Amino acid sequence: MDFSKQKILVTGALGMLAADVVPLLKARGAELVLTDIREGEREGTAVVPLDITKQAEVTACVSSERPDIIVNCAAYTRVDDAETDFATAFAVNADSVANLARAARQNQVKVVHVSSDYVFGGDDPEGTRSEEYREDEVHAPCGLYGFSKHYGDELLCGILPEAHLIVRTSWLHGIAGPNFIDTMLRVGKERDMLRVVNDQFGSPTWSGWLAEVICSLLENDAVGVFHASATGTISWFDLAVEIFAQASYQTKVEPQTTEELGRPAPRPAYSSLSKDKLKEMLGDVCIDWKESVAAHLRAKGVV
Ligand SMILES: NC(=O)c1ccc[n+]([C@@H]2O[C@H](COP(=O)([O-])OP(=O)(O)OC[C@H]3O[C@@H](n4cnc5c(N)ncnc54)[C@H](OP(=O)(O)O)[C@@H]3O)[C@@H](O)[C@H]2O)c1
């Protein structure tokens, strides 16, 4: 696929992942229509308001803009809030994906959607698993955010079986939105010691890398579900230790259990994703989790 011949509608264009996706699509020559729930600007291009929970608005926008591809970067990502504000979480993460898919089907548009490792782990509360999740495994979400993402995936596959690309990722960190690495850098400056969860295992994902992967999958006309995260399975504790080591902070890190932290939403104890299918399509594109951290710190000018 040649990007210079594509018109691409991006939803959630003011979000963290979109901050990396939009410049790459632009650099490859795609014609862009940028939208989000709020108006704004991204990369010198106006972001126009489009609430994807509204089917009529979505249909009108897709019918008038007639894009070749929709890249859905919009989401409700506040995992703990989703436990109480589940109506909004489901409206944005599930119903809206169906809204986009229906409008896309009417206009022969491909939909690229981003899923989450939180669709897994509900059947493994003790974290006994040590085998990476493949794309074809049955979902077992453990919280309402995970359920909302699960239904979004299912609806998209059902409505657009031949024209969807789902890129499922985990522990996403980019410089344009709230994320674990920036939280550690901020809190680590204020405190000598931090306690960080040591019983949830997964893989971080540098948003700049994920944006490259999404573009490469599009270039390869990929259809279906692909897992994409850094290689290596670690705990949040391991990640915090590595962030402080690379950033030359003296902050000490002590392990803590999920139960001690006591967050409202349950989280997968193990959610590492297999990249075999991604590597089959794109070759050896994966980066190690320490490089994921390093890329973030370089982009922020910390190292
Ligand atoms: N962050 C992670 O750790 C993580 C992990 C795995 C997968 N993912 C997935 O990766 C994708 C990108 O995540 P992200 O962290 O870049 O998300 P983000 O920074 O929260 O960006 C999402 C954008 O969508 C907008 N939005 C919310 N409701 C909307 C609506 N009704 N209509 C249109 N736009 C709406 C948000 O606006 P407001 O900010 O005003 O709400 C925000 O600008 C999501 O699908 C997420 O589920 C994320």
Secondary structure layout plus pairing:
Blueprint: E1 7-11, H1 16-27, E2 31-36, E3 40-42, E4 45-49, H2 55-65, E5 69-72, H3 86-106, E6 110-116, H4 144-159, E7 164-169, E8 172-173, H5 180-190, E9 193-197, E10 201-202, E11 205-206, H6 207-219, E12 224-227, E13 234-235, H7 236-246, E14 252-256, H8 258-261, H9 276-282, H10 289-299
Parallel strand pairs: 1-2, 1-5, 2-4, 5-6, 6-7, 7-12, 8-11, 9-14
Antiparallel strand pairs: 3-4, 10-13
Helix pairs in contact: 1-6, 2-3, 3-4, 5-7, 7-10
Bound molecules: NADP nicotinamide-adenine-dinucleotide phosphate.
Describe this structure in words.
The chain is 39% helix and 19% strand. By secondary structure, the chain is of the alpha/beta class. The strands form 4 sheets. An 8-stranded mixed sheet has the order 3-4-2-1-5-6-7-12, sandwiched between helices. A two-stranded parallel sheet has the order 8-11. It has a two-stranded parallel sheet with strand order 9-14. The model has no long low-confidence stretch (mean pLDDT 98). The structure holds NADP nicotinamide-adenine-dinucleotide phosphate (NAP). NADP nicotinamide-adenine-dinucleotide phosphate (NAP) binds next to helix 1 and strand 6.
